[in-house]
Amino acid sequence: MTTATLQAEPQPVARVARTYLNERTTIASWLLTTDHKRIALLYMVSITLFFLIGGAAATLMRLELLTPQGDLVASDTYNKLFTIHGVVMVWFFLIPSIPTVLGNFLLPMMIGARDVAFPKINLASWYLFMGGGAFAVFSILSGGVDTGWTFYTPYSSTYANGHVIAMATGIFIAGFGSIATGLNFIVTTHKMRAPGMTWMKLPLFVWSLYTTSIILVLATPVLAITLALMALERAFGVGIFNPSLGGDPLLFQHLFWFYSHPAVYIMILPGMGVVSELITCFARKKIFGYQFVAAASVAIAVLGFLVWGHHMFVSSQSIYAGMIFSVLSFMVAIPSAIKVFNWTATLYKGSISFHTPMLYALGFIGLFTIGGLTGLFLASLAVDVHVHDTYFVIAHFHYIMVGGMVMAYLGALHFWWPKITGRMYPEWLAKLAALSIFAGFNLTFFPQFILGYLGMPRRYHVYAPEFQVLNVLSTAGASILALGYFLPLGYLLWSWKYGKIAGPNPWRATGLEWTTPSPPPKDNFDTTPIVTEGPYEYDPRATEAELRAAHA
Amino acid sequence: MRTFFNSLFPPQASNLAPKVDAIYFALLGLCGFVALLVCLAILFFCVRYRRGSGADRTPPKWRQRPFELAWTITPFFIFLGLFFWAAEVFFGMSRPPRNATEIYIVGKQWMWKIQHPDGRREINELHIPIGQPVKLIMTSEDVIHDFFIPGFRNKQDVVPGRYTTEWFTPTKAGSYHLFCAQYCGTNHSRMVGNIYVMEPAEHAKWLAGQPAPDSLIAAGERAFRNRGCSGCHAPNAAIRAPLLDGIYGKQVPLSDSSLVTADDQYLRNSILLPNKQIAAGYEPIMPTFQGQIDEQELNAIIAYLKSLWEGDVR
After folding, report:
1. What value of ipTM does the predicted structure carry?
2. Which is nearest to B194 in space by CA: B146, B147, B135, B138?
3. Residue at A116 is within a domain
């Protein structure tokens, strides 16, 4: 899909002589590129494909759940579907999504650099990611895995069927891609900032990428170790997690969540960064409480490492450990609340316009707020005992991951699309897509909160008949959601060739990335920019005055 | 109206349910309020300050810091309050009362095996009388399962190689779902059952209709003899092994000079992994029974060892 489309890119448009897209157009020039912008596009195409795989699995699951009996697919198939959905969406879509696509594309431009610190390692990251993806696809095609994305032992290490080790190897390899990307971003942020670009002048998106990278570098190795130990037990019977071999099954859960809880913040922090950019630009306002929003990212990254045990309140972990993890989980909600309040306050006395990226940003705030607040139910020990491992948890994290992260990803894609391609997307179609995604999403996942409190456990192929009405609602919502996702896939590809020419700064945004032509030249900037102002020097009154002058 | 409510809310059938639901509704109220506040503020700003609205946009004079402090500190104290409330209820959920009936549960792919103290066994069904506290002592033969009764608002993972407990007092007659809540393989979603809560008189009638096997303790005593345990763990045995009369609940000195409480887990380990913890002053000569003895027989032996204990402190 990509190379064909990119090959078809028309000859240099009159307004820009040479861009990163048309500089060289051979397939090798793409596969061997070290340009951060091209690597971003490689990632964009790859994660779109993985999103389609994960989405197809979700579609089949929702169809199966239309009826309480297991009548569409067999139980083993259903179990493989939710495993594919989880593994692919977490490791091959959500974790790479904003950092590797928009982070790669924007981080150097936002700080006034020509590229990331280690361009070759950046390309190697993509190959590691694709290598890991190949293992995952192999394990799906050769029969699948039925452990769930959590790989709990001793089920995964002893009892599960299927290609568990191949799947774990895929995640293991892709993890090194993540680590390399994180390392690259950290060094880039420290060493490549343009003159005058001090830490307190960094765009908040850069702050969020920076904190995300720190988590990637610190947490991902633990996942690699955990999966390696699991594979060791599965392949050679080394007793680590299986009690009948002298192991401890809870050890696996501790190690797994020590990575996977921070991973939640890997998935949401970049989305928060995007929203800070979008809200300020479309409200024409300086962000309210810049330092607090930036510090909240750091606080989330730090506290996020100390709350893994809240996945284990009923696992037979000590009740005192449970209490510590509970109180810390409440505390990690505070920085998220700070961000929501600051975004809301930023709108005050702004000059607000409602282009598609802004619709996604506002949708993000609403859905993330619901997702975050329902997290408080799960942090509350006694309530978690009841809703743990039910659809309540499913609904909660989909509000964060899909309502939050996917909305932010789509918002970012629309916002920076003119910069990436030099073309505008069709506004009305895009608004229609944003609204159907918002409506479809809520109809899919809100009923699942109720299902969860009623007691419907997750990962159930067949379920009690009284849960059917809510499941039908959820499936209906998923159909709308799926249609909403296909729209951008179509019109964004269309706009690549036929969209309106965007010009360097269609949103009149303030970031450095908007000071270069669209699409940017290979080296981003003709001369290294010198930064004298903060990132959000917007003036709502000036915008209003211009508007009046234009109408007069 | 009532049926509509029932389709959105599970039955309240145990002593724990109203306590958990109280926190749930408090959270719903609080979170609903905050969500509404944020959404209304956003809507209001979006309408009032839409581009070209003509609203006053003079930069406000007040400082930002007081706002930031207010919306950092307020949630902190509210969260602390919520934490203590939920933790207090959780603490109670983890402390079974002394007079609770002890019922052994063994989970395996994909069924629940249940042993009552009087020796009756059930599969995927549990009949219990209203008002009598029940303590479940649970373990698994294979992978991790989870014993979840939504109507009772209680759940606990059932983990191989260790005992976990869960307790409740049923308060409302009826039939309630039992679900396995921890994914355990192919038929995870079919590892379900029913909890029947009965009026005491009705329960007695149901009991009378059941065959009366040996009590769990008697079965355990028989196993203790048949498995040869009594050959060594007896006062005049040729091989010197610790006497087990009254051992349950005591502090046992180990050969590495540490102390361990002789609870269910210790007794289990001593039978299956005898070399893990050696009682001080004895040779590590006990053979392992791992793989020879199933979970239900093990439960009977432990119930028997507990019965040898005369004290009344738990």
Report:
1. 0.90
2. B147
3. yes
